Amino acid sequence: MYDSYDSGFYYPPNYYMNYWPARQYPDVNPKVLNQSAQASKKLMEEASLVLDQLAASEEFSTALMSAAQESNTAEVERLIHSLDVTSDVDITYNPDGLHLEFKSNIADIHCCTLTVALRWR
Asked: Which sequence spans correspond to the domains of the chain?
C-alpha cells in the first residue's frame, strides 16, 4: 500500500523558510591556517624521526620500554629528545603503550597538536 519510506501523512512545505535573511560570512584570511599547516609539517617530521627510530632500532625500543616500565620519566623523555626533537612533547605511557603529543605555537598561541599513540602490549 505505502512505500517503506512513506509514512502515509502529508507534510506541507515550510513557507516561512524564504523569510530568513541571508547569512553574512566574514572575509576569510588563510594566513593563520597556512602557518598552522607549516608548523604541523614540522611536528610530523619530528614524529617521523621518533617512529623511524622505534621501527629500526630494537635496542632503542628496549631502552624506552624498560625506562617506562621502571616509571623513569626523565629517561623516557631523554631518549625521545635524544632524537633531535625540538618541539614541545607531552609523553605519557602505561603498561599497554606510549602516547606522544607534539605541540606547536605561533606567536605564543597554541596552533596545532599531533598525537601519536603506540601500543606495545
From this structure: 30-119
